[in-house]
Amino acid sequence: MANGIRVTQEGVPVQRAAEYQEILDERFPFLEFSFVGEVRASGSIPASGTVAVELHRHGLPHVPGFFWMPIKPDGTYEDDFNVPDPVSTSDRVVIEFASYMGSSYSVRGVLMVVKNDLTQTIKAPRGGSVVQSTTGPQKRGIAVLREGGGDIESNDKTNFTLHTNARSFAIHMCGVENVPVGDADGGFYITHDLGYPPTFFYARRFVETFDALKGQTCQEPFMYNAGLARATATTLFLRGGQGALQGDYMYLILKDPVDTAI
Amino acid sequence: MKAGIIIAGDGKTVNDVPEQKFSSETMHLPVDFESDPKHYQVVTMNGGSAFSMDGITFAGVQQETLLSIEHNYDYTPFCFAYFYVVSYAGSETHPSAGAYGDMFYPYSGTAGTLQDFITFRVTDKKFEIVHYLEDFGYGVAYTSTAPNYLLRIKYYIAPIDMKVTAYQGDRMTNTL
Asked: Which of A209, B56, B118, B120 has its CA 20 to 30 A from that of A223?
């Protein structure tokens, strides 16, 4: 017997629910974070070579996907490329500084490390029949407060780790795709079969060839895509912006709530 | 005391942490179903105005807000958005139709002389869809093709504090 809990949105029978009408379903992996928070680091850059500055030790058994919001000292976001993007490795999230970048560094940002092993190829099942409906506040369901999250009656979903009236995104697909050098399409196709243009993230993954991280598999952050995409109801094609994609790319496609599953 | 929900892996106990199907002890990515205005939505709209630059007078940054939503968090939340091109100049068979931008969609980049794009902007008060035309000062004349685009835009506002005063979806520029 399989273990599980299924919670659908108001008025949708569990047996007939399409996956995008569900709040919780043990058949699908939910997107989880092992760490969400602000990180800071400062120090000296060596006169030659590079230094890999540790922002976070993730403790996961894989090289994880992650999101990153760099913050300037004045509280605005870093947009001018003065600070390199971090990468995740097998044990840490680090930023690599080189000697030409000056004599010291100071880094601040919000880091969100994905706990799920997105290198494992997943294509979640699609279940149930399509019952058109929209989401809305529900009278029955589940609410679980975050540790120290405050009042269970609160409407601020920031305080909850699970709430029937707040969608926790499930993973529809993930994996790592290799784009061969010289590939004629200059990108890669994902057959998602969702029936609408999907919610997706992707980022480059590579083996560093020099200096402080030499030989290590490095994963770049999601949401820094200079590429362009095309989408149909069944396929997502990711390609480069000013140049073709090549090498490995981690991708993640989420299951949308019914209102945006169109 | 800790309380919550854990779904054990099949044939496993809740103490087999790596095998857990679900744990409320772990941070997830939520969006609020009760928010008014909505924190997730698909909106269909025109791509913006025909901003222009004559190549003689430096035009700087021209911008317009196409959608503005008060999110009612007291911080700048984690947002993501997708821009699907339904049609170009009324044609659903034009090569631009079916294009799909994540976080932003570029109407034109014209070899580094300008950038014309649509993206989102988020502050500690609002989530906005914004059209920008930025003149880099290379003396190029240009008129935005934004009005030719019919876009279907999907966005999410998630209750995670990004600790910044504001940011843009494209992350490459700061025209705030």
From this structure: A209
- Test the A interface: residue of B5, B24, B107 with most A CBs within 10 Å: B24
Across all residues in chain B, what is the average pLDDT?
88
**Interface contact flag, A112 B176, Cβ < 8 Å:** no
Residue of A nearest to B110 (CA): A242
Q: Is B102 left (phi over 0), alpha (psi -120 to 50) or beta?
A: beta
Mean pLDDT (chain A, rounded): 82
Chain B residues lying within 8 Å of A36, measured CB to CB: 27, 160
The DSSP code for A30 is B
Candidates A61, A254, A262; nearest CB to B42: A262
Residue range A210-232, pLDDT digits in tens: 888 999 999 999 976 666 889 99
Q: Are A153 and B26 in contact (CB under 8 A)?
A: no
Cα–Cα distance, A257 to A9 (Å, whole number): 10
- Please answer whether residues B88 and B97 qualify as being in contact, where contact means their C-beta atoms are separated by less than 8 angstroms: yes
- Closest partner residue to B4 (CB to CB) among A115, A144, A201 is A144
User: Any idea which of A57-61, A166-170, A192-196, B86-90 has the lowest mean pLDDT?
Assistant: A166-170
Q: How far is B74 from chain A (nearest CA, A)?
A: 11
Computed from CA positions of residues B114, B127, B161, A88, in that sequence, does the dihedral angle turn out positive or negative? negative
For the stretch A162-192, pLDDT in tens is 776 766 788 889 999 999 887 777 889 999 8
Query: Which single residue is written with the structure tokens 């990180």?
Result: A39
pLDDT of residue A30: 83
Whether the CB-CB separation of B160 and A36 falls below 8 Å is answered with: yes
